Amino acid sequence: MLLIAEIDLATIKDRMAVNKAVQSGNVEDAIEMVNDLNPEILDTNPQLFFHLQQQRLIELIRNGKVEEALEFAQEELAPMGEENQSFLEDLEKTVALLAFEDVSKCPAGALLDVSQRLKTASEVNAAILTSQNHEKDPKLPSLLKMLIWVQDQLDEKVYYPRITNLSTAALENPAV
C-alpha cells in the first residue's frame, strides 16, 4: 500500500493522456498537456520539443497537408535546425517525405510508421517522469535482468534453488 501512496494517480492519468495524444497523432494537444503539467519540461529540453514538432510535421505530411507542412517546417522547424545541426538533418529527412509520391520508396519512410509515434511518446513520458523526480525507466525489467545475471554468476560457483520461470517464480532444485 505504501507504493500506491507514493505514486500520484493523477500524474499517471496525465501521462497516459499525453501518451494517447502523441500515439493518435494529436501532437498539438500533447504539447499543450505537457505545458499544463510543467512548462519547464519543453523549455529546458530543446531536443524533446524539436521531436514533438517533428512529429507534428510528420502528421501533417501523413494527412496530405503539403502546403501546411511546408509552411510549418519553414516557420517553426527551420530556425531550430539553424541552431542545431542534428535537428537540421532530422528536418531534412522528414521533409524528404514530401518528395516521394509513394513514401514506401522514401529512405525516410519509416518516419510514418507507428513506431515513430511510440518513440516520441516514450521520450515525452520519460521527460515527464524525470520532471516529477520519478525514474524514467520501470524498475521491474532492470531487476529481472539483474536476477538473471546474478543467477548466471552463481551457477559457476554454488548450488542453489534457481528461479526457472520468472512469471511464476518457480524454483528448480540444483542437480548435485
UniProtKB/TrEMBL annotation:
<dbReference type="InterPro" id="IPR006595">
    <property type="entry name" value="CTLH_C"/>
</dbReference>
<dbReference type="Pfam" id="PF10607">
    <property type="entry name" value="CTLH"/>
</dbReference>
<protein>
    <recommendedName>
        <fullName>CTLH domain-containing protein</fullName>
    </recommendedName>
</protein>
<dbReference type="InterPro" id="IPR013144">
    <property type="entry name" value="CRA_dom"/>
</dbReference>
<dbReference type="InterPro" id="IPR024964">
    <property type="entry name" value="CTLH/CRA"/>
</dbReference>
<dbReference type="InterPro" id="IPR050618">
    <property type="entry name" value="Ubq-SigPath_Reg"/>
</dbReference>
<feature type="domain" description="CTLH">
    <location>
        <begin position="11"/>
        <end position="68"/>
    </location>
</feature>
